[in-house]
Design goal:
Layout: E1 2-5, H1 11-26, E2 29-33, E3 43-50, E4 53-60, E5 63-67, E6 79-87, E7 89-94, E8 97-102, E9 106-110, E10 115-119, E11 125-133, H2 141-145, E12 151-152, H3 157-172, H4 178-203, H5 208-225, H6 234-240, H7 245-254, H8 259-275, H9 285-291, H10 297-308, H11 312-318
Antiparallel strand pairs: 1-3, 2-5, 3-4, 4-11, 5-10, 6-9, 6-11, 7-8, 7-10, 9-12
Organism: Actinomadura fibrosa
InterPro entries: AraC-bd_2, AraC_XylS_family_regulators, Homeodomain-like_sf, HTH_AraC, RmlC_Cupin_sf, Tscrpt_reg_AraC-type_HTH
Keywords: DNA-binding, Transcription, Transcription regulation
Length: about 325
Amino acid sequence: MNVIGTAGMPAAERLAFRREVSAKLWGPCDRRRGSHAEVGFRADSGVSEFGPVQAALVTTAPHAVRCTPDPVRRPEPEVFKLGCVVRGGGLVEQDDRRADLQAGDLILVDTSRPFLGRCAPDAPASLLLLRFPREALPLPARDVRRLNGVRIPGSHGVGALSSQFLLQLAARMDELGPSETARLSALVLDVLTVALAGALDVHGAAPSSTRQGALMAQIRAFMEKNLGDARLTPEAIAVANHISLRYLHKLFQQDGHTVAGWIRERRLEACRRDLTDPRLASRSIGAIAAGWGFSSPAHFSQAFRATYGLSPRQYRTRTPTL
């Protein structure tokens, strides 16, 4: 994760620097300080790439942002931002809609259209911003635009599932290297699809052609979140996502997988990654396997060898920890 911040800069230069960085990341913005202007503007951003999705974890002093697209030069005509409030609150206005936000809530903004964002004035705010081209989503553009400036509650429904994943992502972004972000890219895009398709169902039914894909993304996000739970079974997954066990198996068959096979692959990959992590060098192989839901050490060792051609111990000793 690349960190961009105002720490160490003269107070008088911070706002101008932040405006320049924001223009490069999100487009031209008029960034205005709040009531604490006399102590100097402070802000930090940690930026990571998840395939077509750019994630920025922004921590900032109270301020307002008014963005107006350049009518002459617009190289990315349909770039959206989905924000997840990590800490604090605020409001967003776009297309004559106003959303008052609190921690956990989600908000969609179309950067090709004017919008106003304002942090709560009483405390610093932290926001995870996911920037992505509209074409990356399997949702019709006309439907996505209906969500501009609409609050997606993070307290219940599909919004809560998406919010929980994004809050976890915000908490662990600084731990992720290039290989982890590459592996998570599809999942991040799936979560975006789930959040927006779920909101479309609330504010106007999502097209039927997108519902199955959104449901599959929702199921994968649930499975990733609970991958370390040994009780993660097809039956538990079906119940948690309010579908029949038969339909769950059908969805995975259409995708060329089995439910149990998908869980096993993801767990083995997580164990393989942990076995080469120098921070976990003192942790036993059995503890790593149990932490990712393998209740039988013998079964784990057999499955690992079948997948990677080496036993877990051989893999750990022969692979350099960088």
